């Protein structure tokens, strides 16, 4: 079938499904597909002044399947508009899927670089992967080029995992990092270079793990940040270690110094980027304002996804600005444009000392800012309960002695394995910025020192916000909340 027909057929399937969907958990201001399944963000790019985001998408079902690229664009990173599906699989080089990849603006030609996924034996999950290009001059319709695949096979010392190209320009050359794995199943990232995005030469290994860092590194992204170089990766197969690596797969980074002449990347150890349940496959772009902006997939492989019953599954996180903090720590904060979502502001508290304060509200699209003064605080822990008081609440607790932040979703849909803990050195002050969007929570603590992202599935009508202190009082410096806009309505 011709690509145009495949895309039309997929659009038709989405339209039909949309009419039958149950909207109880649909998000109000996050990127989702019109219906059915999505996973990784792909192809983050600014093109002709607009932001484009693509995503791994199965338009025929609420479960993962032959991967297409869904497509949205926005002028402001807040109001998104769906465009027709950009890539459909089924050609010789991508017979079973157009897997994750990236986008660049090549002198006015919007170029997508993606992985072709091809089974030789689907039952036994035996496959090969290659790298391909599709181009567009209107930012809507994409043509796969005749030279595909532009990289037909992995280097000889690698196994068959060979995917998720992220491309950028440095001086006059294009560079590509790819997720890969050695013959001994050790995760690594490899590097290629090209003068024209068509012919690629293999440069070598950019970074490689060991047995404890997983069998495959998915979705690499490599960029300069304030003079350092950051390699973001999504390793598969790291074992849980106390409060670390609690999700099936992780997303995190290595930071250090890179030399383009010698391809030497000297870096420190692996750090997780987010400490919630549902954060994976992050990708970034450098926008025209010079900001490094990141978006992740806001779910996790093999987890419970109750929205499948409703005919859809998966969403992307809010766009986050990535900056470098002290001690080479990568920080993530909501991009400032997200203030455009604010509809009604309620400033309810300033400088009040208490151990409990409750706001009854039925709003389920909220931004909350809560600032606790921890100097001279005699409480053991302080925190906030949100969405569904008592019965189905989601609870964030900061434990002053242990200096840990805990996100507890065990009453809000994550009955098993509902708790995540992470270290946060909040000495003087704990500042929480929380975005609630019906079935998601994103927490930015102390200006991005810690973020926690999880999907939640409360069913209660009685929502609310409750600040608390255990075994003592706390001075609440500020509590402000905003009712947020539903951009899809
Ligand atoms: C990451 C990933 C990628 C792959 C894509 C397939 O979540 O497994 O490595 O390209 O999803 O949908």
Give the tags.
6-stranded antiparallel beta sheet, binds beta-D-fructofuranose, mainly beta, 2 domains, 52% strand, 489 residues, single chain, 34 strands, globular, Jelly Rolls, Tachylectin-2, Chain A
Strand content: over 45%
Task: Please tell me the CATH architecture of the largest domain by its name.
Answer: 5 Propeller
Query: Helical content, roughly?
Result: under 10%
CATH evolutionary superfamily of the largest domain? Glycosyl hydrolase domain, family 43
Give a quick precis of the structure.
By secondary structure, the protein is mainly beta.
Would you kindly provide a written description of the structure presented here, covering whatever features stand out?
With 489 residues, the protein is mainly beta. It has 2 domains: 3-334, Glycosyl hydrolase domain, family 43 (Tachylectin-2, Chain A); 340-484, Exo-inulinase, domain 1 (Jelly Rolls). Helix content is 4%, strand content 52%. It contains 1 helix and 34 strands. It has a 6-stranded antiparallel sheet with strand order 23-34-25-30-31-32, with no helix packed on it. Strands 24-33-26-27-28-29 form a 6-stranded antiparallel sheet, with no helix packed on it. Strands 4-3-2-1-20 form a 5-stranded mixed sheet, covered by helices on one side. A hairpin with a 4-residue loop joins strand 10 (173-182) and strand 11. The protein starts with a helix and ends in a 5-residue tail after the last strand. The mean pLDDT is 96.
Task: Walk me through the topology.
Layout lengths: L2 H18 L15 E12 L2 E9 L9 E7 L6 E7 L9 E10 L2 E13 L4 E11 L6 E2 L13 E13 L2 E10 L4 E8 L6 E8 L7 E10 L2 E9 L15 E8 L4 E4 L3 E2 L7 E7 L5 E6 L14 E2 L6 E5 L5 E5 L7 E13 L1 E4 L5 E9 L7 E6 L7 E6 L4 E5 L10 E5 L5 E9 L2 E6 L4 E6 L9 E6 L3 E11 L5
Parallel strand pairs: 1-20
Antiparallel strand pairs: 1-2, 2-3, 3-4, 5-6, 6-7, 7-8, 9-10, 10-11, 11-12, 13-14, 14-15, 15-16, 15-17, 18-19, 19-21, 21-22, 23-34, 24-33, 25-30, 25-34, 26-27, 26-33, 27-28, 28-29, 30-31, 31-32
